[in-house]
Amino acid sequence: MSQLDVSVVIAVKNEEVYVESAVLSVLEQTGLHFEVLVVDDGSTDRTLEILTKLEAAHPDLRVLKNPKAGKCSAFNFGVANAHGRFVCIYAGDDIMPAGSLAARYAKVQGYATTTPVVGLCKLITMSEDKKFDGHLVPKRAGQGGLTGVSYMMNRLVVEKIFPVPETLPNEDTWMELAVTSFNWTLVHSDIVGCQWRVHSGNSINMQVDFSTYNKKLTPRMAAIRIFYDRYGDELSPSSKGKLYQKVRCEEFRAKGDIIGILTTQTDLVSRLRALSASNSFFYTVRKRLYGLLSGW
User: How far apart are CA 236 and CA 245, in angstroms?
Assistant: First the structure.
């Protein structure tokens, strides 16, 4: 059997409402040789039952059970069992636009196997709440996004990112740190590779109050310090210095230290993001500005 072009790894837990449409949107991709691995992270609803029926009807689908517990461990287990030249991760409640997987693969397939390469695409939000529906991310032409589901990663990249530390609640921040810190080849595109569903079940979103948001954000952002401690000495002096400033900025944000945030030497966007998540006032301002820019 010829080598698989791409492995799509999906981690799911209690996704009975969306999982069938999400997985089918991946299985119905055409134009390349691929596999889909779905790792069930201890669902207590009908998720596993739905997946088992899909697996029986689709030879390109493998359903696995996470031997541990937690989203990062589920992704780690799925990636460890993937066979494709490239790997991308996905969520059990999103939709993969028709033809997007082959289009994304076409952007990166020509790169040498000795070159760490990541293909970046865009996503578009979908939500029953009009404030959060239909937003293209990122908007700028020719620029792909940095959220985890936007990455098409070759084996050299996969071996560096995974396994994601399983003390973290989510993989996104860890993956973004790797992609922005290492000197890898990044291939940007305007392909929309994901219709990202915004709803109350998301691991984190701005539909909640500041206290709830902060309790979810702080454990995620612990990835910065962990990544710095693990990989700091492998980075260029410039990248290491920038990463250290991100560590300091996050420490100040977690304490609500506005002056500390503003005086760090990290980039302006990082400081503004930290400021907007430092207390309830700035968080509310951010939500209102987002709403105004979105036309509501």
Answer: 14
> Tokens representing 279?
């207390």
Task: Report how far residue 277's alpha carbon sits from residue 280's, in angstroms, rounded to the nearest whole number.
Answer: 8
Output the pTM of the full model: 0.91
Residue recorded with tokens 């902060």:
214
How far, in Å, CA of 54 to CA of 60, rounded?
10
Spatial separation of the C-alpha atoms in residues 243 and 229, rounded to whole Å: 10
Residue (of 115, 123, 238) closest to 189 by Cα position: 123
- Is the pLDDT assigned to residue 250 strictly greater than 70? yes
Q: Give start-end residues of each CATH 3.90.550.10 domain in the chain.
A: 6-197
Which token pair is 178?
């790797």
Detail the DSSP E strand segments found in the chain: 6-12, 34-40, 61-65, 86-91, 117-126, 136-137, 151-154, 185-197
Neighbour tally for 139: CB within 10 Å: 8
Q: Looking at the structure, give the CATH architecture of the domain made up of residues 6-197.
A: Alpha-Beta Complex (3.90)
